[in-house]
Amino acid sequence: MTDTAGDSKNYEERIIRDRGICGGEPVFKGTRVTLRTVLASLATGDSAEEILADFPSLKPEDIRAAIAFAGDDPDARG
Fold first, then answer.
1. Which domains are seen in the chain, by residue range?
2. What is the value of pTM for the model shown?
3. pLDDT tens digits, the chain, 78 residues: what are they?
4. Under 8 Å between Cβ of 70 and 40
């Protein structure tokens, strides 16, 4: 089992909220891909590889950051 402690805080560098981008929804830095989109894809059973293929601007670290962010931020779920 890998240590995810570093990953859980890594999301702060990868996910941002800016009212000027997608109405302030959390997005991956440098993209307009929303956290909600990635979490919904994971929830419907898409693999990380499928998500990365659908959104080539994302990196594997972004998928891990999405999961960590959702775990830390109850507002991300709604």
1. 5-71 (1.10.10.10)
2. 0.78
3. 344 444 456 788 899 999 999 999 999 999 999 999 999 999 999 999 999 999 999 999 999 999 988 887 566 544
4. no
